[in-house]
Design brief:
The complex is a heterodimer.
Chain A: H1 2-16, H2 20-36, H3 51-58, E1 84-89, E2 92-97, E3 106-110, H4 124-132, E4 135-141, E5 151-157, E6 165-174, E7 179-188, E8 195-204, E9 209-217, E10 223-232, E11 237-244, E12 249-258, E13 264-274, E14 278-287, E15 293-303, E16 307-316, E17 324-333, E18 339-348, E19 354-362, H5 366-373, H6 379-395, H7 401-416
Parallel strand pairs in A: 1-5, 4-6, 5-7, 6-8, 7-9, 8-10, 9-11, 10-12, 11-13, 12-14, 13-15, 14-16, 15-17, 16-18, 17-19
Antiparallel strand pairs in A: 1-2, 3-4
Chain B: E1 2-11, E2 14-24, E3 29-33, H1 40-48, E4 54-61, E5 64-65, H2 71-76, E6 79-82, H3 94-108, H4 116-130, H5 147-161, E7 165-169, H6 177-190, E8 196-200, H7 205-209, E9 214-219, E10 222-227, H8 230-238
Parallel strand pairs in B: 3-8, 3-9, 6-7, 7-8
Antiparallel strand pairs in B: 1-2, 1-4, 4-5, 9-10
Helix pairs in contact in B: 4-5, 5-6
The chains are: A alpha/beta, B alpha/beta.
Chain lengths: 419, 243
């Protein structure tokens, strides 16, 4: 596949890169990607998700999409709450509306014409993203501006041909004392399997607040790798929630750096993996400043040959005194052919810190099912009620009430589809 | 209402019930007392359909074979077990649970399901009647409830579902006198000629508030003695050894 990808890259770079410098930077990234290849289980970070094997198994080849289809108008917007919107279609900017905001306070641009991002690190999918990214979002919320309504980024796919590979970037800067709530909603409207490779960067400045919620409506053959780096400055808060119910493979990897004093990071999620799905949440929280706080709660329910993984690391640097770090992962396996892997890690170099972690996995409590059935519920409804309760506990960490309610509704829909 | 005939139950090759016979007619209140390990809770579990027991003998409930009914069907047909240890169900709102259960029972009996408002009206009335703190309705089901709150919640469920055959499994254990009165009041309010009760208890105390028609002593998996309410007093004084 990599040989074919080389040809794809060559013609892509010639066609797409308008400047030689951009073409050169992209080529550097691609070269390093070729050296490393797709990540395999030989890498510690990928030991539970052999992506190389997964992609070779699911895809014969991957082709970059350059078709911008400007005429298509997406209209399946969320109706439950008022929101600003940005629509991406097949990886390209399509439409936007900031109708609830003072538009002078928001700087917004797409990334169609660059810039290019220099190769960095050895995450080969990030390098691949740097080489191939076609568009994305650059968003600044200006100093002191608190957005009135959430922003929903509709990331819509409706590709009908075999252009199945999408690379995007989302870059958001919440300036001092400003606030933004975002929902990233990825939807595949067609059944052609796609591979989405996204790379995000978030900066939360002093006293800033960024809440980022992710929900997917992707197909059961789609692959999705989503990488985020979030840097949080003094008294800033970054809140992240992932509701992971669809796509054959989904890995959400987030590195949250609590750079300055009194900053906080919350990484929570619920995984409902039913029928051959493979979902992973990997969180790496770095406490650098003092008096920083992090919280992670991940709940997973697995069935029918599904696999879920939680890798959570809390790193506390030598200056990060008074750190408060918490991490909890709980999983329920509904049958014997599902698998849950958990790798909690603490790496602590400061001496005055409070860190805790816990991880459990097990089956549904038969006594609880008996209790509910003895109150007139059938077995199916009893199990669903328990699953709902179990996962809702994670969703309740969401601090935006409207979005919490929406996510709960979406979860209930998904659970009711279980058979 | 309930005819238990030569009932035996084993779990993991341990014989727990051993040829138990019991006949409960409509409108009667029966109390079962007995030492630890005599099979009281097993009897309650077998009646409500808990899996895992190897059972012989037969039970007729409202003249039908009870063993042919699944757990939820027994509930639909008016069998109610107040648990000795009610389960904590995290993430499930008590009020939603009560509504879902009540509607499941109503639906199976061909009655109209209640909407949120109709339900709220009924449940608030019950809560007031039983002198239970309304706040439990908005909490997660039994999560973090005190022992007394859990038992009161069982009584609330009993009075909402208005069952035909109620089994109370040591509902009085660990209750203070006020909570005990709430439980007794719940039972006495529901007491009528069409409804029967089987009260499993260790102590005579509850029976001061709920007057049983019969008191049975369960020992080694069968009824060793049957009497009227005075039997409970005797047991309280002399213990089980003399039976």
């Amino acid at each position: 596949m990599i040989e074919e990808l080389k040809n794809t890259f060559k013609s892509f770079n010639e066609k797409f890169s308008k400047k030689n410098t951009i073409a050169k930077t992209r080529a550097d990234n691609f070269e390093k990607f070729v050296q490393l290849g797709f990540p395999s289980k030989n890498l510690e970070d990928w030991k539970f998700s052999d992506f190389n094997k997964i992609i070779l198994n699911k895809f014969k080849n991957i082709n970059i999409n350059l078709d911008q289809q400007n005429k298509f108008k997406f209209n399946k917007y969320i109706k439950e709450f008022e929101h600003n919107k940005i629509v991406f279609l097949n990886g390209f900017y399509n439409d936007h509306s900031f109708e609830y905001e003072n538009e002078e306070k928001i700087i917004f641009d797409n990334l169609k014409n660059g810039p290019a991002y220099k190769e960095h690190g050895d995450n080969s999918l990030n390098l691949l993203n740097n080489a191939f990214f076609t568009d994305g979002l650059l968003l600044y919320v200006k100093k002191g501006y608190q957005c009135k309504k959430p922003l929903v980024i509709y990331n819509v796919f409706n590709t009908k041909n075999n252009n199945n590979f999408f690379n995007q970037k989302i870059i958001i800067n919440v300036e001092e004392n400003s606030k933004l709530d975002i929902v990233v909603y990825s939807i595949n409207l067609n059944s052609v399997p796609i591979f989405i490779n996204t790379s995000n960067f978030f900066l939360v400045e002093k006293k800033g607040l960024l809440k980022l919620f992710r929900i997917n409506e992707l197909g059961n053959k789609d692959l999705n790798y989503n990488f985020s780096q979030a840097n949080v400055m003094e008294n800033g808060i970054f809140e992240n929630f992932i509701l992971s119910c669809s796509s054959a493979f989904f890995k959400n990897e987030i590195k949250c750096t609590l750079q300055e004093n009194h900053s906080s990071g919350f990484i929570n999620g619920a995984i409902l993996a039913h029928e051959n799905l493979h979902h992973e949440i990997k969180a790496n929280i770095e406490h650098i400043g003092q008096n920083t706080k992090s919280y992670q709660k991940i709940k997973s329910v697995l069935s029918k040959n599904s696999k879920a993984i939680f890798q959570g690391k809390i790193y506390v640097g030598s200056n990060a005194q008074k750190t408060n770090g918490y991490q909890l992962s709980k999983a329920i396996l509904l049958d014997h052919d599902s698998e849950f892997d958990s790798k909690p890690e603490l790496e602590i170099y400061a001496d005055d810190v409070k860190c805790s972690h816990g991880s459990t996995s097990g089956s549904l409590d038969e006594d609880a099912i008996f209790y509910l059935m003895s109150r007139g519920l059938n077995r199916f409804d009893s199990k669903n009620l328990l699953i709902k309760g179990f996962l809702a506990d994670a969703i309740k960490t969401i601090t935006n009430e409207e979005i919490k309610k929406h996510f709960l509704n979406e979860l209930v829909k998904k659970i009711n589809e279980l058979r | 209402m309930l005819n238990i005939n030569n009932l035996s139950a084993k779990i993991e090759n341990k014989q727990i019930l051993n040829g138990l016979n019991l006949d409960i007619k409509a409108g009667e209140i029966h109390a079962i007392m007995g030492p630890n390990g005599s099979g009281k809770s097993t009897l309650a579990n077998v009646l409500s359909g808990k899996k895992g027991y190897k059972i012989s003998g037969n039970i007729k409930y409202q003249n039908k074979d009870l063993f042919k009914l699944d757990i939820e069907e027994r509930a639909h047909k008016g069998l109610f077990l107040a648990f000795q240890y009610p389960l904590e169900i995290p993430g499930v709102n008590t009020s939603n649970f009560l509504k879902t259960s009540l509607n499941a029972i109503r639906k199976s009996n061909g009655k109209k399901e209640l909407d949120a408002l109709e339900f709220l009206k009924i449940v608030k009335k019950k809560v007031t009647e039983l002198k239970i703190d309304e706040k439990i309705l908005n909490r997660q089901l039994n999560v973090g409830f005190s022992g007394g709150e859990k038992k009161k919640n069982e009584i609330l469920q009993m009075s909402l579902f208005e069952p035909k055959m109620v089994i109370l499994d040591e509902t009085d254990s660990g209750l203070d006198i006020d909570a005990l009165k709430i439980v007794a009041n719940g039972v006495n309010t529901l007491r009528d000629k069409d409804r029967s009760f089987l009260i499993i208890t260790h102590y005579q105390r509850l029976l001061e508030y709920i007057k049983p028609d019969f008191v049975h002593v369960l020992m080694e998996g069968k009824i060793a003695k049957t009497g009227c309410s005075e039997l409970a007093l005797e047991l309280e004084k002399a213990g089980y050894a003399k039976i």
